[in-house]
Amino acid sequence: MIDRRHPLSGNVLFICPPPPAMLMLLKQNKNQPKHPLTQKAPPQASVWLERRVWLTAIAIALGVGGLQWLGTLQSSELSALDWMFRLRPAESVDSRIVIVSIDDRDIDYLRSWPIADQTIATALKQINAAHPRAIGLDIYRDIAVGSGQAELQTVFETTPNLIGIEKIQDATSPGIQPPDKLNQRQQIGFNNVVVDSDSRVRRALLLWTIDGQRRRSFALQLAMLYLQGEPRSPSELPHNPSHLRLGRTVFPQLQKHDGGYADVDVGGYQILANPRAAQFPTVSLKAVLTGQVSPEQFRDRIVLIGSTADSLKDFFYTSYSQHADGSLRPMAGVELHANFISQLLSAVLDGRSPLRVPPLLFKWGWIFGWSLIGAIVSWRFRYPVQLAACLLGAGAVLTLSCYLSFVAGWWIPLVPPMISLTGSALVITSYIAYLEEELKKSKEFLNSVINTIPDPIFVKDQQRRWVVLNDAFCRFVGHSREHLLEKTDDHVFSSQQASCFRHQDDRTFKSGLGYESEEEFTNASGDLYLIATKRSLHRDRAGNVFLVGVIRDITQRKQAEADLRRTTTELKQSNVELEQSNVELKQAEHRLRHLAYHDSLTGLPNRELFEDRLHQSLHGAVEHQQLVAVLFLDLDGFKRINDTYGHAMGNLLLKAVAQRLLRCLRNSDTVARFGGDEFVVLLPTIPQLSDVLKVAEKILSTLSHSFALEGIVIPISTSIGISICPLDGTDVDELLKKADLAMYLAKQQGKNQYVSSQEITPALQAQDYR
């Protein structure tokens, strides 16, 4: 069938609410176990993990939808449709249609094939004498056969309720012309049948436009003839409609991608076949010819005359053809046309809905919805048994929803959403397995690191449970590691103490920044400590977030401070004047010491204090085999700023530069001013050389931003020279000299950059650049 005309079909809105059982399945289960491998996704899960569920559902839905669109899933979806047909409750026999069958016994009785015109004429006159509402002759009679041609032509002319057949030429077979007399009276219907790729008939062809002339099918002609005898005679919608309508019933035209089809040939006007499982009342041609049939069996009915003989092989396979034992039962062509007629009559007269399909947008949403359900279920339920039960339940709900919709007259796809459900579940389950593997690796790594540190250290997950602890923490708390792991503060400490710790943990999780706090702590033995806890976050490659806490016992320090305060108070009480004098002496001593070791303008350490700290750092670096870095800074164009804005503005700029440098460095680092616009930075205990370069880049970036001083915007940059102990020596003067040389080279190379002393040539080292 090659007719490429595609009249628009009507879109019927199909609304399918989420099944109640599935809504219950997706509700929060507050009694879920708290094991990390089996717990529900926490409500505090980060946004990117929630996006993972949505992205997985979208990707799987698009992939499955694409496979369906390309036709990969058509065969399985059509098999699912056949399965639903066979499971549908049996319907009563349609007694409005009677089949006069021509089987092998009838052919033996007549002793000829094709049947002679005389025999057909006799049968038609006897049937018509019983006053049927319509007669369908499903036998080709384009040429005369045997005797009785004139009598048969007379029957054709005098039987207005008789419909003959023709076969329109298509891509698979040549056409067969109809009887001339019936064709002249427009009592003809084509009997072409549309067959799917698996040789099954699931579609009915009702109209076919050829050379501008619209022809009706054999089934449609007989159905309309029968309906003319109804009190309210329905008729086909006039004016070349886009939808075929009989009475008030619209038969939507099949489109290329309706239901489980993918780019199917929809030439002509096709609808989805909705056959019955029950057979129709049948009498043999021999019984008609011998007068053994009561006229009441034909009266006011549609009588179909056609072959059911096995030897003629006029059979088709339908959705009902496959039996439970795997055997196939074909359906005779005349029975197939009876089913088409019954489908039309039942839709118009009995309210039996035609088999419909929802809009294409619903089909895509249906696939995505079940893909999302699979992703959510797999994300929320981590027990294998529980997950399998939930997925089986979801699959059962999906299957039941499609089946009930089918019983109600809707063909909702089953296979694509089932694949989406399982596919998204597999992807999310695989991703969860990856997360757990990374979680295991992170725990092993953290264990290997923190057990080498003497301070008490704990690691918590996002549910505030301890997942990694070192020995020092267990001794400090007074509980074994087995007792503490997978528990929270509420399980071990008092409610007040647990609330305090939980507040500090929440603050760190929410801000994402490192945070240090001081609090009281009572261990399992009742000993009271004052502790300082530094909390920070750690994220592994899979996105698992941990809180790492390091505890320091500051009880003795706080006790010493308290003793000092108490002693001071006692001294004040005994001798106020002496106390005042001591305070003044101490303040004077502090001021003198500060003046001796600090720059008077910026408050930074001066050269003497810097060299003392550098000397101490070098001693420790050599002893512990650590790196120490010296960065020599000189502001670019500072003389021009002094000349332009005056020395007062220059002093303000130096102070601002000093403050920015302090904010760039760690508490353990030292920045000093050597005079003029020269600053020197000490970086002790550097893990690796790349960290020094990062600090240098950070300083360059920080100082490159203009300064706004007293309403004046002043741009400034700096040149940095770097020397490293022990690479450039272990002597204070030597390191300062090489850093100064490197800074000088940075100036020569264009300023606003850093240069390592490793880049200095021997010739430049010997040069008297000053």
Q: What Rg is obtained from the alpha carbons, in whole angstroms?
A: 47 Å
What is the number of helices? 25
Look at the helices and sheets and give the structural class.
alpha/beta
| Biggest β-sheet: strands ordered side by side in the sheet | 4-3-2-11-1-10
Topology:
Layout lengths: L19 H6 L21 H24 L3 H14 L9 E6 L1 H7 L6 H12 L5 E4 L11 H10 L3 E5 L13 H5 L3 E3 L12 E8 L2 E4 L1 H10 L16 E3 L2 E3 L17 E4 L9 E3 H5 L12 E6 L7 E2 L14 E2 H18 L9 H21 L3 H24 L7 H36 L6 E4 L5 E4 L1 H7 L3 H4 L4 H4 L2 H17 L3 E8 L5 E12 L5 E9 L1 H20 L1 H22 L9 H18 L2 E10 L1 H8 L1 H18 L5 E6 L2 E9 L2 H16 L2 E3 L2 E3 L2 E9 L6 H17 L5 E3 L5 H5 L4
Parallel strand pairs: 1-10, 1-11, 2-3, 2-11, 3-4, 24-25
Antiparallel strand pairs: 5-6, 5-9, 7-8, 12-13, 14-15, 14-18, 16-17, 17-18, 19-21, 19-24, 20-21, 22-23
Helix pairs in contact: 2-11, 2-13, 5-6, 8-10, 11-12, 11-13, 12-13, 18-19, 21-22, 22-23
Summarize the structure.
The chain is of the alpha/beta class and 770 residues long. The protein has 25 helices and 25 strands.
Structure description:
By secondary structure, the chain is of the alpha/beta class. Helices cover 45% and strands 17% of the residues. It contains 25 helices and 25 strands. A six-stranded parallel β-sheet has the order 4-3-2-11-1-10, sandwiched between helices. Strands 15-14-18-17-16 form a five-stranded antiparallel β-sheet, with helices on both faces. A hairpin with a 2-residue loop joins strand 22 (707-709) and strand 23. Helix 2 (47-70) packs antiparallel against helix 13 (415-450), helix 8 packs parallel to helix 10 and helix 12 packs antiparallel against helix 13 (415-450). It starts with 19 loop residues before the first helix and ends with a helix. The model is unreliable at 1-48 (pLDDT under 50).
